[in-house]
Amino acid sequence: MVSIELRVGSILDLSTVDWPGRPAAVLFLSGCNFRCPFCFNGSLATGKVGKSMSVDEIVGILKKMKSMVSSVVITGGEPTVQNILPLCKRLKAEGFAVKLDTNGSRPELVEQLINERLVDFVALDVKAPLEVAAYSRATGIECEKHIENVKRTLALLIKSGIEYECRSPIVPSINADEQSLRKHAECVQDANVFVLEQFWPESGTLNPALNKIKGLNRKEMLAAAKFFKNPVVKIRTREAGEEII
Question: How far is CA 78 from the centre of its chain?
Answer without folding.
Answer: 8
